[in-house]
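Hey, resending since the last one bounced:
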Amino acid sequence: QVQLVESGGGLVQAGDSLRLSCAASGRTFSTTAMGWFRRAPGKVREFVAGINWSAGSTDYADSVKGRSTISGDSAKNTVYLQMNSLKPEDTAVYYCAAASGRFYDYWGQGTQVTVSS
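The structure tokens again:
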């Protein structure tokens, strides 16, 4: 099992920046990738960004591309999501996720991000 704990959420104004952090513990040696998802009120959970440890590659949803950067340290089992130029539509609960294979199968409890206009 892998445990994930997110931090860094909060209430910000449109145009502000925010950095989310996620710390993984447990069987982290099995982790091949980590990522961020979000669920806005009344909507389904959606992919935001991901980082593949072995490939060293990153991926972003179109909605955040150019405004967000995912980074991390596989040795420290941490991943970050730097979000800039935040918009009210970025308001959501953000979840950290970890993959032990092809799919994300471990999830954190989530951290609330609220962007006021």
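The first strand starts at residue 2 and ends at 7.

Sorry for the duplicate.
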